[in-house]
Design brief:
By secondary structure, the protein is of the alpha/beta class. The protein has helices at 16-30, 54-57, 65-74, 92-100, 129-139, 166-177, and strands spanning 3-8, 34-39, 78-84, 113-119, 146-153. Strands 2-1-3-4-5 form a five-stranded parallel β-sheet, sandwiched between helices. Helix 1 (16-30) packs across helix 6.
């Protein structure tokens, strides 16, 4: 049994990425994983100031919710980032969080597999490419980790719309079951 950390980054109530993440979590639990979920809604995460003090201390000098999240990221076997796509890229709050994970770079982090679940109103095959590429860039900084897989759900715009799409709910569930 592995420890899976799911981080949902949408700040919107009833978001489609949150709805599909719930199904992903159900699938991961049914596959026997221990799953923890962190939502960024209501969290205080400041921008990285680039001081690099974290490289020695392995903790950020900024005192906000990112430090606790970084500790959970460090100790998970697998990570899942769920994001809405804004202007063909990951949400700004997800990017800010990734920047704040800099203290993990020199640490003895545990995670090996990283996954992405993305949603958007647009439904083109290429809609999530830049978001996936951005997460790949972050993963590339961690030699022991790989971007294992990603899944994209397009054509969902209004809050709660994903709950009405049985095919998407099923795909999210089985994506969760496939996490290693």
């Amino acid at each position: 049994m592995s420890k899976v950390l799911v981080i949902t980054t949408s700040l919107r109530s009833g978001s489609n990425s949150d709805i599909l993440s719930e199904r992903l979590i159900a699938g991961a639990k049914d596959a026997g994983h221990e799953v923890e979920h962190i939502g960024l809604k209501g969290k205080r995460i400041e921008f990285c100031i680039g001081c690099l003090a974290c490289q020695k201390a392995q903790k950020c000098v900024l005192n906000d919710d990112a430090n606790e999240i970084a500790e959970k990221v460090k100790n998970a076997d697998s990570l899942v980032f769920a994001t809405p796509i804004y202007y063909y890229e990951m949400s700004g709050q997800m990017k800010t969080l990734l920047d704040r994970m800099n203290p993990l770079y020199p640490s003895d982090y545990r995670f090996r597999s990283v996954y992405m679940l993305a949603t958007a109103a647009e439904d083109e095959d290429t809609t999530a490419e830049k978001a996936v590429s951005g997460l790949q860039g972050w993963v590339d900084c961690f030699d022991k980790a790989t971007l294992a897989d990603s899944i994209f759900f397009g054509g969902v715009s209004d809050p709660g719309e994903a709950a009405l799409k049985e095919d998407a709910l099923n795909k999210a569930y089985f994506f969760g079951k496939s996490i290693r």
